[in-house]
Specification:
Layout (H helix, E strand, L loop, with lengths): L1 H15 L2 E5 L2 H11 L3 E5 L14 H9 L2 E4 L9 H8 L11 E3 L35 H15 L4 H26 L6 E4 L5 H6 L3 E5 L10 H14 L3 E4 L6 H10 L2 E4 L13 H13 L1
Parallel strand pairs: 1-2, 1-3, 3-4, 5-6, 5-7, 7-8
Helix pairs in contact: 2-5, 3-4, 5-6, 6-10, 8-9
Length: 293
């Protein structure tokens, strides 16, 4: 009887134990929460308030990685400047690249902007392609499916729960996408300038034309010569919108706005990056609200 009682305790502990999931960025946490629900405990490594390329590798992140059963990253080199040293020091074999607990969501994305050559002369380029694919709401679908698949592998006991949560989430997301896509139709063929090539996936999805960038090259601060050239291009092309992210300096965009009459629109790069974008739906909705109204 004692052995049976102990076995019941162990079995109950296993059923109630949560999967510790570490994610590199908030949008991944928002998706994982929808799939994992009460069976996962999620910790976010990077803040939406800062440049995703440069997360400060604080010691507190080591303990989070050390305890993780699963690590979900954006991939495509976005975490290359800060995550590898932390992974090495965390010494957690469960979440190393190639293991079941390591999830690189870029692997299920049709990448764009792949450079034909990799050189510092071209700025801060990503060999695998543009890593900012989360700006396209349609990319949420394959990412959610991958996360669910990996959760099933890490925690097979709750396999049916994850599958059910995924189905419910996708049904809701398809409804959201239908409405969102309809709103975006009025923005087709709009011409914009962006600070960084942050919104390319979003722009490509909805037929919006990026005429240029405030950065002369990725990761390179704008020069006076490049800024004047961009102003002239915007006047020639009739560009009336400048897309500004929350973490780059805004002085240059405001200067260009005064010279061209274009309005500066600050769009979030991640869930929670600006006020009122704490959910996946609100994160994307603000794109349509700011651009197409």
């Amino acid at each position: 009887m004692k052995k049976i009682f102990l076995l019941l305790i162990v079995a109950t502990s296993v059923l109630l134990a949560k999967v510790n999931v570490a994610v590199s960025y908030p949008y991944l946490a928002a998706i994982a929460k929808q799939i994992g629900k009460e069976y996962v405990h999620i910790t976010v490594l990077g803040s939406a308030k800062y440049d995703p390329h440069f997360v400060v590798p604080k010691p507190s992140l080591l303990s989070r990685l050390n305890k993780a059963d699963m690590l979900i990253i954006n991939g495509s080199g976005l975490e290359i400047g800060w995550l590898p040293p932390l992974l090495k020091r965390a010494n957690n074999g469960k979440i190393n690249p190639g293991r079941v607990g390591f999830v690189d969501v870029s692997q299920v994305i049709d990448m764009i902007d792949k450079p034909t050559a990799v050189s510092r002369a071209f700025g801060d380029v990503h060999p695998e392609g543009n890593p900012h694919f989360n700006t396209d709401p349609h990319n949420i679908i394959p990412i959610a499916m991958l996360i669910e698949h990996k959760l099933e592998m890490v925690d097979p006991i709750h396999k049916t729960n994850y599958a059910r949560n995924l189905k419910k989430f996708l049904n809701q997301w398809y409804i959201f996408l239908k409405k969102f896509d309809e709103k975006m139709k009025s923005c087709k063929d709009m011409k914009v300038v962006q600070y960084h090539e942050l919104y390319n996936y979003f722009l490509k999805r909805y037929g919006i034309v990026s005429v240029g960038t405030i950065e002369p090259l990725p990761g390179i601060a704008p020069s006076s010569k490049h800024t004047i050239k961009l102003i002239n291009t915007m006047k020639d092309e009739g560009v009336k919108v400048i897309l500004q992210d929350p973490y780059h300096e805004k002085k240059t965009a405001n200067f260009i706005s005064k010279k061209t009459g274009a309005r500066v629109i600050v769009l979030p790069h991640d869930v929670g990056a600006i006020k009122g974008t704490d959910t996946l739906e609100s994160f994307y909705s603000i794109y349509a609200e700011q651009l197409c109204n």
